[in-house]
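step=encode ok
step=design start
structure_in=
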């Protein structure tokens, strides 16, 4: 069955009354994009979103929008007309414009398996000289002498295709020796620490501020046939919590694929996690803030040993 997508442009104040009207027509599944909530989220989480596409900030000025779907048949078209009439009545009574424009946008949507279609765009990816990232559902076309890291991006937030992640993998491959230990600060999907184990690390520890990352990282570990004996993942905020920092010892490789503000805030603590000959690999730095991050690293007693840069992103390897 195909569908009609119905979007109603409104304000934060219009959300509840519109949802009530939609419920009268038997429509309770409503997708809500609340402009006010979105602006609040960006402002409260500013230190985490260098990584987000620049277009995201423009969405702060987007309208609040409610979206529903009805079947593309006579019944669905009848509901669409009822919705138009109801919203029109609402608009006439809103003499002060509290509920916004109340414009209605419609689009025809094909009945496709959206949750699966994206898979056609994610192909096996070679990184560096040794690593091959393989989608879980796609068998390799032939033999390979590369270290294969299996991933299902549908359950993770990190596939290795982003420049910043690729830089980290390349630098881990270059600097990690068999038997080394690694600490992954802001591990996300666990991609870097699991790949480090596949490359010969004896033990990897990972931490992320998001508790959901713990289960995701362990899932990727198990997907690659590894057990938990030498892999340790936990949640916590290293920057603000000394008890969290106290969990960790010293490591041969420390990596942070995060954002500029967080790397700057982490800088004073990084040396405490490093063995004498350790390296610190940090990425996720937009080029506009690269010098600012470099200065913070140097002020923390780290020497930038190597720089990797693309059109938008910078990564540093420090000692």
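sequence_out=
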């Amino acid at each position: 069955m195909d569908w009609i997508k119905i979007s109603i442009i409104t304000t934060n104040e219009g959300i509840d009354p519109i949802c009530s009207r939609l419920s009268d027509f038997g429509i309770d599944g409503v997708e809500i994009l609340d402009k006010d909530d979105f602006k609040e989220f960006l402002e409260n989480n500013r230190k985490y979103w260098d990584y987000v596409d620049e277009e995201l900030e423009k969405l702060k000025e987007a309208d609040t929008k409610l979206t529903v779907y009805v079947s593309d048949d006579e019944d669905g078209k009848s509901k669409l007309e009822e919705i138009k009439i109801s919203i029109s009545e609402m608009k006439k009574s809103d003499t002060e414009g509290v509920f916004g424009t109340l414009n209605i946008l419609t689009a025809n949507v094909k009945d496709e398996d959206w949750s699966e279609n994206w898979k056609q765009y994610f192909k096996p990816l070679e990184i560096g000289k040794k690593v091959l990232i393989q989608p879980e559902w796609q068998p390799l076309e032939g033999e390979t002498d590369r270290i294969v890291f299996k991933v299902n991006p549908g359950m993770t937030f990190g596939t290795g295709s982003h420049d910043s992640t690729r830089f980290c993998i390349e630098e881990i491959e270059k600097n990690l020796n068999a038997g080394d230990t690694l600490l992954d600060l802001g591990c996300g999907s666990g991609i870097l620490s699991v790949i480090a184990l596949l490359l010969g690390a004896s033990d990897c520890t990972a931490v992320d501020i998001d508790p959901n990352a713990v289960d995701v990282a362990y899932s990727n570990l198990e997907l690659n046939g590894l057990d938990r004996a030498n892999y340790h993942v936990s949640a916590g905020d290293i920057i603000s919590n000394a008890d969290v920092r106290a969990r960790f010892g010293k490591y041969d490789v420390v990596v942070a694929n995060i954002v500029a503000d967080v790397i700057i805030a982490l800088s004073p603590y990084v040396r405490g996690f490093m063995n004498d000959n350790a390296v610190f690999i940090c990425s996720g730095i937009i080029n506009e803030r690269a010098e600012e991050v470099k200065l913070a690293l140097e002020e923390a007693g780290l020497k930038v040993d190597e720089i990797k840069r693309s059109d938008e992103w910078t990564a540093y390897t420090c000692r």
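step=design ok
step=annotate ok -> The longest helix spans residues 74-93.
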